[in-house]
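Figure-free illustration: sequence to structure, shown twice.
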Amino acid sequence: MKKYKKELQIGITTLIALIVLFFGINYLKGNALFSTDNTYYAIYNSVSGLHASNYIYINGMKVGFVKKIERVDVKGQKFLVEIAIDNEVKIPVDSKLVMYSSGLLGGTEMRIDIGNSLTLMKNKDTINAIAEMGLMDKLGSDLKPTIAGITAAATHLDSVLTAINQVLDRQAQENIKQSLENIKTTTNYLSSVSIQLDGLLEKEKARLSNILSNVESIATNLNNNSEKLNNIITNFNNISDTLAQAQIGSTLRETNQSLTSVSTILHKIESGEGNLGMLINDDQLYKNLDNAVKKLDALIEDIKANPKRYVKISVF
């Protein structure tokens, strides 16, 4: 009995593990076992990059996934894609299932472009299948004519060069080679000159930038000191009005006349004219006058000291 019990436990454990594995694999594939999703079909000529469990989007929102991809014909030119869409999403019959590339290095994705029809698709209906050309495919298709043209031009150029080599002699070929070398040297020189000009332009640009900065600083200072400047200008205007009212011209003329008179008087004094001139220029007159002043001073002192000698008072 114990032996059978152990085998029963192993069997139950194995069954649970298989069930969990089954549900896990289906969950990873995106299959919902108990869901009520609607199933739709689409037929494509190529399913490159498309896999089962790829999500399907409508306006960027996930609404379903790819359930299965099957080959329709033996040659593999048609493929049936089975998709599951949330049953709450109503799809008009003119809608399109678009398979497109998500980017330059991205994989293949699918979206539904909702149509405008009032008639809705039913479960297991076939939806219109559209395959958009990827970025690399577009580039390849756009480049094919260009590559063909380049190939034809290269072939033509090769034939032209061959014909030229056959026509031209060695000296002419050497001349052409020398001309090409001269062109190369000239190109290098022009490149050097261009670099030097770029350097000069950068220096001039920096110098102009400094000048503009200084001008902006001066303008800022003038703007900040505009009130002071206005006061200075007002003061100058007041001074100008005062000077205008002072009649400086007539004042200067009168002053000039006074200075002329003073100059004439000083000239006469220096020439000895008049008493002051004689007093200044005649030393003897100065000495006599000085002696007279001293004697007068001595007389005044003696009068102060002996008044009775000079004044007689009689009383009646």
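We now fold a second protein in the same way, so the two outputs can be compared directly.
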Amino acid sequence: MNSKLLTIAIPTYNRKQSLLDVLKGIEPQGHYDQYEIVVSNNCSEYDVDEWLSRNLSKEFRGLINIYNRPYNIGGSANVSFTYQLCRTRWMWLLSDDDKVMPNAISTILSDIKKMPEIAHIKYSIQGYYPLPDRLCKSFGEVLDVFVARNVQAGYGQFVFMSNNVINLEKMRTYIGLAPQYAHSAIPQLIPSVFAIKKDHVPWKVSSQCITNYEPIRTYRTIDAKLDFANIQLIDADFSEEELVKIRKMFSGFKGIRNDVEAMLGSGSSIRARLMFYRLWTGCFPLFSIRGIAFYIYYHLKALLGKNTWHRG
């Protein structure tokens, strides 16, 4: 660990302009003495160092360390290995194509100074109604927040990457689980889930926003949903009550349309059928109303061959 409080960890691949836009969103926010940035470059087809040096101020560029991977290890693996690149107590895991709120740095720094015992801060996302401010002392309490009736797209906000600020000191025992679960679409959540379940270190859910929501990217939650729906693949000793809440979070009526559109827009009928089966058996209790609705809607859409979903 070093004298700074926060590492902003940005996994990237071939998003030349959006990476620069993210960094330019951070640059004017100040507090240069309290954070550093690490960019995990997943073998992009351009010179990231040259591009950033040409377009950012010398002082701000001095905060950025670039780790250039010699070959592409896949998106989830690149996300998971950012844990290994951080030298500070706290990490903000930030996508290279999300929009940073103008007060994000001051919001995060204020919170981590006031809450050193928190393991994970889950922020709200601009574009949704704010999440309730809540201190969660168990994983069941975390799930309660995201399955609540008045929370918009709870599963999407739960699996979203750029609203997570993580206390690496509290995660020390479980950091290695992120790359272990790099096959999943949720490696960024795994250490924190294990920490609250095994060591009972609390999460904080915050009404404050640090990133903005892009509607076109909603389809990406389908992969995370598939991984969490098949929860037996994650060896965290989930209770039956927690499993019920997880399935409830991922099987709401509002998400059914997006899930079906994402499956049928995956580019492969075989992949679509496999995704459907995994989600149907993993999320929905047998003969539940939501499960029946999901089954009928998927097969009607597949039969009609109409798909309006665009991956962007």
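Summary for the second example: The chain is about 45% helix and 15% strand.
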